[in-house]
Amino acid sequence: QKSMDNERTQSVLQDGYDLPVYGLDTGWFLYIHVPALCCIFLSLFCASAVIIASFRSQTRPFFSWMRSERFVVYLSMCDALFNVTHSMDHLQMVITKDHVYPEELCEFYSFFIGEFVSAQLLMTNVAAVNAFGLIYLQKQFKLGKYDWKLLLYTFGVPFVLSVCAVNFGYYGPSGSYCYFDGVKGAFANIFFTTVPMTVVLVINVVLYVMTWWKIHTESKRIKTMLGNEAQTIRASHKAAKLMSLFVTAFFVQWWALGIISVWQNFAVVPQQFFTVVVMFTNLGGVLNGIVYIIIKRRRDRNYSSKPLKSSSQMSADSGISNSTTNVSVIDTQI
């Protein structure tokens, strides 16, 4: 009888608002939303602190900063905006113990959550590819003047996809937050989230392992080398290590979501693991704050041990010079 009732209920579901609020009937509701909100506000604080500290510690124009320093700001901005948006739907659900109403508000939250999550996904993929290129091709991929290529790719592509998702009615309540509608957008979620997240995670991990393996093997060889060749290789190693930090932070933040995105398509995911997911995915600002501290310490240590560079060298450090890129001065001001 219970099985027949479940089938009948499933057959009349029209959208995510027909789903029960996740965890409310089992007493696990607050164990999802309270940890999520705590992590969100901690992440928002750290992301805001990183953005403020980054600009206060610099005297040069933004687009002349090191590439890794600009990446920290971009990712922290994504984290901050994601945290602000995501805190609103979690707070509303905690207060009302219901889905987010009206429907348009939930779609609004979903749009920006999708935009900033996807932007982080693509930006860390660029960082992984950049580190790989430095080590295996001895070149830095150009991002365009004012990083227009990077920004168009990382923010433009998610924007187009989010507009499509809104127009097709895929966004709405998932049962525990606003993102893809748990009924109308369930299938689309596989192609918009599960597949891209899994593919990018795998690609980033493969590139990360290959990059560090190459660094490890070359580090032994350059001990016997002298001159400009050894300097160039060491410099590319330093730059690649910095860019790899973003890949590491990305993996720590999104590994749990990558697992649950696949797991939930084949079996019921334990509620305890869902709490783990919401905690890790909402700690991006903290993780990027750690990356910022590492970059700043290495940069300050380098400043204290080396004379000030000329303006042409500083331009090369930024990675946006129009001339041929010399990896010996790219992102080595660490």
TrEMBL record:
Subcellular location, principal: membrane
Q: Does the keyword Membrane apply?
A: yes
Ranges annotated as spanning the membrane: 28-51, 71-88, 108-138, 150-170, 190-213, 242-266, 272-295
Known InterPro entries for this protein?
GPCR_Rhodpsn_7TM
List UniProt keywords, sorted A-Z: Membrane, Transmembrane, Transmembrane helix
The G-protein coupled receptors family 1 profile domain, residue ranges: 47-292
Cellular component GO terms held in the UniProt record:
plasma membrane
The biological processes this protein is annotated with in GO are: adenylate cyclase-activating G protein-coupled receptor signaling pathway
Where does the record place it? Membrane
Indicate how the chain sits in the lipid bilayer. Multi-pass membrane protein
Give the Gene Ontology MF terms in alphabetical order: G protein-coupled receptor activity
Q: What's this protein's name?
A: G-protein coupled receptors family 1 profile domain-containing protein
Organism per entry:
Magallana gigas (Pacific oyster)
